[in-house]
Write a structure and sequence with these properties.
Layout (H helix, E strand, L loop, with lengths): L6 H10 L6 E5 L2 E9 L3 E7 L5 E8 L10 H4 L27 E4 L10 E9 L4 E9 L5 E10 L4 E10 L5 E6 L2 E5 L5 E7 L7 E6 L3 E6 L13 E6 L10 E7 L5 E7 L5 E7 L6 E3 L5 E2 L3 E6 L2 H17 L10 E3 L1 H4 L5 H14 L3 E4 L30 H11 L3 E6 L3 E2 L4 H5 L19 E2 L5 H17 L3 E6 L19 H19 L5 E3 L9 H4 L4 E2 L7 H11 L9 E4 L7 H8 L3 E4 L8 H23 L1 E6 L6 E7 L5 E8 L22 E7 L14 E3 H6 L12 E8 L2
Parallel strand pairs: 22-23, 22-31, 23-24, 24-27, 27-28, 28-29, 30-31
Antiparallel strand pairs: 1-2, 2-3, 3-4, 5-10, 6-7, 7-8, 8-9, 9-20, 9-21, 10-19, 11-18, 12-13, 12-15, 14-17, 15-16, 16-21, 17-18, 25-26, 32-33, 33-34, 34-37, 35-36, 35-37
Helix pairs in contact: 8-9, 11-12
The chain binds (2R,3S,4R,5S)-2-(hydroxymethyl)piperidine-3,4,5-triol (DGJ).
């Protein structure tokens, strides 16, 4: 991926970075300001109309000559637009607009109208790869302005868009809607939406439909754990049919926000698609003081005309390079105790588990839920959340002695916390009832027997920061943190806020303040983002985390599908996959699936048979030899489990000298596995490769190893048959260049 950019293209990219305030073009004798956002393969083009409206006129593969973008508007000009705003770059409301707005306000004097006219723009080159186009819009009547930002990542073809709203009126302005981005796509064939729904242990279930005229809204109103029912990500294919892995025009979209989000997808009267994306304005009218700056979270988009595979590889590369903490770095393999002990453990049991971690050869032992609370011990999920002191009965010598012991046996130590939450049965709840989100005059509703702390309150932010900081400073040997979040917000009411409609937004801002402080103090600490599974997976939070927990569903068969869909939006290096006892598949199958990301184990090691233990120990070693390819390589989805009996997923290193291919039987009706070769991708057609099977179960002989050498061209035209069948239901292949 990311082939070297041709010099001339690079030059254009660089030059564009210097153009201020846009390109003046002559269109039909009139000079027009064009604002192109150019990436390696694509262009998002904005134009300033003669009425000073900023319009989005194009998003797609870039044209050879940027001079031609000026002809685009003319090409579409026959269709009626009753407002002149259908393709507004940021649709205001209350004036000419008749469609879904990006922004709606009530001015300080009570007036509800808004017009946003172009004032100026500049493009700043932030690095070789990254440029920022900023466009200033102002209302001609009110002292109210919006800055639109387009941050482009040239090599990765990714664009981040957000808006910043400010005013200097004589009193507060109420923002009723405040989108981050307003995208306009055109295609005569139509638009296909791939969206996702889910619930606990059912994350990332895809649904594909053709968008019809009118509005389809994807949103969340859950507050925390906002992605429980659907994640803040989607795909739009343009044309007669949904894009495939390697064909078709497609845009992936996602919002960097860990709270309520909203995507309005509107096919307009001219058959174009308007996408308005941002924080959800549900119950969130925001009162903005004069001079106060209201920043919206970035909306990410990546466009490809070569299918969803390429789009996702670009997004994964972008995330590794620019978003995740240590995205291009290393990760720790681990043994977690959650599935093997739940809340039922003591020092002796944990000693055994530490020894088990050593036996397996993993880097770290992760102590999960249940280690804290004294007056209200955390022996199940009804009590203790909020009281972050080690339970004296379970751990008489505290965490410190465990950490020490782990260190002596050369295993690192990690810990679970859920600092945003409180059980009513806790000292914290009794001491600080005013720190809890709940309606004062209503019965309390619990989600997993707990309530959410009010992170809009700076005192609560200090508390949450403080409990994590205390655990980490008291135990410098803790080198890994799993941050969980198991409750949604019911009864949304903050005892702290004067303006209740600020709660959903200020909660997330408060959370980010805490995470920012923690990151400043612990810049290198690996942190797992968990929310009862994948209840909070988004790039707003992932700015502070190295990895995420996709789902509590670790049944490997289900996981193939769940990980498949997550991988369109997130790279393997961020996906924590654990081997557990869920599902009916053999240990090897479970382990192979967990290897397609960051490997962990959550099994009862002492109950493993000798050969199972041997297999796990070997698997950890095998994983160490291929993890670099999985974490940092390019991912190709070769055979789709939704449509085929065998799922195949491939990771290729940047130099195309090595690859790993995972193959799984997902459906065994009519014994069809192994019927066809799997066609590889991403190799060099001119290189030659040897293929051999890895991660075999002790005693298992690979029927495939023949020492044969294949050209990259053969493997990518004819393919290779991993001979998956009921007796070989999961097969991992290592592909290596021979020189
Ligand atoms: C939910 C998480 O998803 C699990 O992995 C585990 O950490 C439990 N919480 C602990 O309560």
């Amino acid at each position: 991926m990311n082939p070297k950019v041709r010099k001339s293209e690079r030059l254009i990219g660089v030059l564009l970075g210097l153009i201020i305030p846009g390109i003046l073009m002559s269109v039909q004798g009139q000079s027009v300001v064009m604002l192109p956002v150019i990436t390696r393969d694509n262009a998002l083009v904005l134009e300033v109309s003669k009425n000073k409206d900023v319009e989005m006129i194009y998003y797609g593969p870039k044209l050879p000559s940027s001079g031609e973008y000026g002809n685009i508007s003319e090409a579409y000009s026959q269709a009626t637009d009753y407002t002149g705003l259908y393709n507004s770059a940021y649709t205001p409301s209350g004036t000419r607009n008749l469609l879904e707005p990006a922004i709606t306000v009530t001015h300080a004097d009570g007036n509800n109208s808004l017009a946003l006219k172009y004032v100026g723009s500049k493009t700043t080159r932030l690095s070789d790869d990254v440029s920022l186009l900023s466009i200033r819009l102002h209302d001609p009547v009110y002292d109210f302005e919006v800055m639109l930002h387009y941050k482009s990542y040239y090599q990765e073809n990714v664009i981040e868009q957000w808006s910043v709203i400010e005013h200097h009126e004589k009193g507060n302005v109420v923002l009723h809607k405040f989108a981050s981005a307003n995208v306009y796509l055109s295609n005569q064939g139509g638009y296909w939406l791939r969206q996702y729904y889910g619930d606990w242990a059912k994350e990332m279930q895809p649904e594909v439909s053709k968008l019809t005229h009118g509005i389809k809204t994807l949103d969340s109103k859950l507050g925390t754990r906002a992605d429980l029912f659907q994640p803040p990500s989607f795909m739009i294919s343009l044309g007669e049919r949904p894009s495939t892995e390697d064909q078709g025009e497609v845009m992936l979209g996602s919002i960097e926000w860990s709270g309520n989000f909203r995507f309005d997808l509107e096919v307009d009267p001219r058959d174009n698609l308007r996408i308005i994306a941002g924080m959800n304005n549900y119950a969130s009218a925001y009162s903005l003081k004069p001079g106060e700056v209201f920043c919206t979270p970035p909306f990410i988009s990546v466009f490809s005309d070569k299918g969803k595979g390429e789009a996702s590889r670009n997004l994964q590369a972008w995330a590794r390079k620019f978003k995740l903490v240590d995205g291009e770095g290393s990760r720790l393999t681990l043994l977690n105790n959650w599935e093997s002990t739940y809340f039922d453990f003591n020092e002796a049991k944990l000693d055994t588990l530490l020894r088990d971690a050593r036996k397996l050869g993993v880097d770290l032992f992760l102590l999960d839920d249940g280690w804290f609370g004294n007056k209200y011990p955390r022996n199940d999920d009804h009590a203790g959340l909020g009281d972050w002191q080690a339970n004296r009965k379970k751990l008489p010598d505290g965490i410190a002695s465990l950490v020490k012991e782990a260190g002596e046996g050369s295993v690192k130590f990690g810990i679970w916390m859920e600092p945003e939450m409180v059980n009513p049965r806790s000292v914290l709840y009794h001491q600080h009832p005013g720190w809890v989100i709940k309606q004062p005059q209503r019965p309390e509703y619990y989600f997993r027997n707990q309530l959410v702390l009010d992170l809009s309150n700076p005192k609560v932010q200090d508390f949450v920061y403080g409990v994590v900081d205390t655990v980490l400073t008291k135990n410098p040997g803790i080198v890994y943190l799993k941050w969980d979040c198991n409750s949604v917000i019911y009864n949304a009411y903050s005892p702290y806020l004067k303006n209740q409609s600020h709660l959903y937004i200020d909660y997330v801002r408060g959370l980010y303040k805490v995470l920012e402080r923690l990151r400043t103090r612990y810049p290198d600490l690996p942190m797992m983002l968990c929310s009862g599974g994948g209840g909070r997976v988004d790039y707003g939070a992932l700015r502070y985390f190295t990895e995420f927990w996709p789902s509590d569903d670790t049944d490997p068969l289900e996981r193939i599908y769940i990980q498949w869909e997550y991988s369109y939006f997130y790279p393997a290096v961020a996906s924590c996959n654990h081997v557990t006892s869920w599902g009916k598949e053999p240990l090897k199958y479970r382990t192979d699936v967990a290897m397609m990301g960051k490997l962990g184990l959550d099994i009862n090691v002492s109950k493993l048979s000798d050969s199972d233990l041997k297999f796990c120990q070997n698997a950890v070693k095998t994983y160490a030899s291929i993890k670099g390819i999985i974490w940092h390589g390019d991912q190709y989805r070769l055979s789709d489990p939704f449509t085929h009996d065998v799922a195949s997923i491939m990771y290729v290193n940047g130099a195309k000298t090595a690859a790993v291919v995972f193959n799984y039987l997902v459906n065994n009706r009519y014994d069809r596995g192994g019927k066809f070769p799997v066609v590889f991708r991403g190799l060099d057609p001119l290189k030659h490769y040897r293929i051999y099977e890895i991660n075999l179960y002790p005693g298992q002989d690979s029927s495939l190893y023949s020492g044969k050498i294949f050209s990259g061209a053969f493997l990518m035209q004819i393919g290779y048959n991993p001979k998956v069948n009921a007796g070989r239901s999961s097969v991992v292949l290592k592909v290596e260049e021979v020189s």
